[in-house]
Write a structure and sequence with these properties.
The chain is mainly α. It has three helices and no strands.
Length: about 80
């Protein structure tokens, strides 16, 4: 599995894990997952910068792609149910 796919999956799973339970409060409550996914990706890249000296904004972008996919799933599920 490539690094990019790992970042997409991490953003997707983080956003779903946080956003899904919040859906009971309405669709906009589910957007907490979006914030959580982006923050988690930013913290991961900050840790990479501190410990390895490299900061890769592409990795953060791939994490955000995963977050967007999760939010699309949450919106579709919310509209169906």
């Amino acid at each position: 599995m490539t690094n990019q796919i790992r970042h997409i999956l991490a953003g997707l799973l983080t956003a779903l894990a946080v956003g899904w339970p919040c859906l009971s409060g309405g669709l906009f409550s589910g957007l907490w997952g979006c914030l959580a996914g982006v923050v988690a990706g930013g913290v991961k890249e900050w840790c990479d910068k501190v410990y390895t000296g490299s900061w890769d904004l592409k990795d953060l972008g791939y994490t955000c792609i995963g977050v967007c996919l999760a939010m699309a799933v949450i919106v579709v599920i919310h509209l169906i149910f």
